[in-house]
Design brief:
This protein is α+β, with helices and mostly antiparallel strands. It folds into 4 domains: 80 residues, 2-Layer Sandwich (Alpha-Beta Plaits); 67 residues, Roll (Ubiquitin-like (UB roll)), CATH 3.10.20.310; 135 residues, no CATH class; 67 residues, no CATH class. 24% of the residues lie in helices and 47% in strands. The protein is built from 10 helices and 22 strands. The strands form 6 sheets. A 5-stranded antiparallel sheet has the order 11-9-15-21-20. Strand 6 and strand 7 form a beta hairpin. Helix 2 packs across helix 4. 16% of the residues are buried.
């Protein structure tokens, strides 16, 4: 198979000889080192293959052997190129293909991040980009050693980071740090005070002196665990450390305007497609920037073996809108208020247990107001250095 490909470049032919002494023709060709193959002999004729450049040299040998030669088949690059000699675009395309293949095969096409669980991949890619690890950059320009040394310092959640190039794919492999145990610095004296009003349910005192008892009501700013401890040697200062869980009351108020301004699509839009290739964006439109306030886009990229290749088409629609005064019904405002309330509950009560006590919905002027009261169980301890309260 390999020799067949080698013969394709200079070209080879299939010839036929008739009459005379074909055995003498073959003997003289072999004696003078002219290669022939696939020889087939019959009483009336002989067929064989040889290189295209050697075929012209066969005339004297055929004349001496009284053999009449005829050309049966032509194969190889010279005959293929001669067939398409009038199609100059094909030659230009082949040359361009070779140039692009040489230039792009040495660049990064895909960057993958593996090994991360808590650290966002976008943060890792942003740091790796500083060391030449980005789509479209030459593979030779990657500073892998610099990323290995400085990467963990810039990303404190990582203990190790490196890049393993494989063809046109750069795989960024990371190892995240194990959580380090909290080390309590007892050299800084402090008090634990209540961050809000409540009734103490239970306390866990690890350092300092307990001041309040379970079931006692406290107000915001009340000292719960004191760092001033009386002893036989007098008053000693310690760092207070612990947890104080208390029953508290909270309230969330959500206000939704019944009259609001919204943007209405006018029906006018401008379509601007763009081809993305590696790190370049090629616009398929003409014209300058637009004043449209809303832009919607959809991207379609090629996929191969589960990887997104940096070649795709992006459709961008610039939509024109106008402002319009609109009124909500109370039912619509109530649904929107419940959605906002759920988001605030998720954010405010992430670290505590809560129970809804009372809910009140009223219309005040041009607004729908939803007020909800809660009973919570939460840690109300707040550490304050003693120097700031003296």
């Amino acid at each position: 198979m390999f020799s067949g490909w080698l013969r394709w470049f200079p070209g080879w032919v299939r010839a036929e000889g008739e009459g005379g002494y074909p055995e003498r023709l073959l003997n003289e060709l072999i004696r003078d080192g002219i290669p022939v193959w696939r020889v087939t002999c019959r009483r009336e004729w002989i067929r064989f293959s040889c290189l295209a450049g050697d075929y012209r040299r066969l005339r004297p040998y055929a004349r001496r052997a009284c053999v009449r030669l005829r050309l049966r088949q032509k194969h190889g690059l010279p005959f293929w190129a001669f067939r398409y000699r009038h199609r100059k675009g094909l030659a230009v395309g082949l040359c361009l293909y070779g140039v692009l293949l040489g230039l792009l095969s040495s660049r990064i096409w895909v960057v993958q991040v593996t090994g991360n669980t808590t650290t966002p991949a976008a943060t890792i890619l942003e740091t790796a980009k500083e060391y030449g690890v980005t789509v479209g950059a030459p593979m030779a320009d990657m500073d892998i050693k610099g990323l290995q040394i400085n990467g963990p310092d810039k990303l404190d959640t990582l203990s190790f980071i490196t890049v393993n190039p494989n063809g046109c794919v750069a795989r960024v492999e990371v190892t995240e740090r194990s959580p380090t145990p909290e080390i309590l610095d007892l050299s800084r004296p402090s008090d634990i005070v209540a961050v809000r009003d409540g009734r103490v349910l239970w306390m866990e005192v690890r350092s300092g002196q307990r001041v309040v008892m379970n079931g006692e009501a406290v107000s915001g700013g009340t000292t719960l665990i004191s760092g001033r401890v009386e002893s036989e040697l007098g008053q000693q200062l310690y760092r207070s450390y612990g947890k104080v869980w208390a029953e508290t009351r909270r309230q969330i108020t959500v206000t939704v305007p019944l009259l609001y301004t919204r943007h209405v699509f006018t029906g006018e839009r401008v379509f601007r497609p763009t081809i993305t290739f590696l790190c370049w964006e090629i616009p398929l439109y003409s014209g300058g920037p637009l004043q449209a306030e809303t832009v919607r886009e959809t991207a379609h990229f090629l996929q191969a073996k589960g990887m997104t290749l940096p070649l795709g088409l992006t459709h961008r629609y610039h939509l024109y809108t106008r402002e319009e005064k609109t009124a909500r019904t109370e039912e619509e405002a109530a649904i929107l208020a419940k959605q906002q309330l759920a988001r605030q509950e998720k954010s405010l009560f992430a670290a505590c247990v809560y129970e809804e006590l009372e809910r009140e919905a009223t219309v005040r002027g041009d607004s729908y107001v939803l007020t909800v009261s809660y009973r919570c169980e939460e840690d109300i301890a707040l550490e304050i250095p003693i120097e700031t309260v003296e």
